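Q&A log
Question type: sequence-to-structure
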Amino acid sequence: MKIHIGNEIWNKAAAFYVRMSVFVLERNMKLEEEFDEQDRSSLVYVVIYENKQPVSTGRYELLDDATIRIGRIATLKEYRGQNLGRTVIQTLEKIGRKKGCTQAVIHSEQSAASFYREIGYTTASEEFYENEVPCVLLKKDL
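Response status: OK
Response body:
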C-alpha cells in the first residue's frame, strides 16, 4: 500500500472514485450532495493506493490557524477492517500538526462516531443533520 498526499488532478480523481463508490453507489447519497463546494482545485486529498487501485481517502481544510477540519473519509468495502481509514486520519492529523494546528474537527455521521471516539475524538455538539443524515461534531487535540 502507498499513501499519496496532493491536489493533482489524478489524485483528486482517485479520491472521487472512492467517494463515489462508497457514498453515492453503496450508501445512496445524492451525487450533488457528496461533491460539494469544498472540492475545489486547491484542496489536498490523502489517498491510499494498492498498486494503482485507490482504496481509501480523506480530505482536509484549514478552518483557522489552529484548526484542521478532516472530512470525507471513505474506504472501499473490500478493504475495510485493515485500518486504512485510521491511517488516512492519522496522516491528515500529521498534516495539521505540521501546519501548526492544535485541534482537529470532524463532522461525522452518527453511525461512524464510535470509530472516531476510538482514536481519541470527543463529541462536541448535539446531533444535527447533513444531507438528511444524523451527524455530530467531534474534536481532538493534536
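Response note: Strands lie at 2-6, 44-50, 53-64, 67-75, 103-109, 122-123, 128-130, 133-141.
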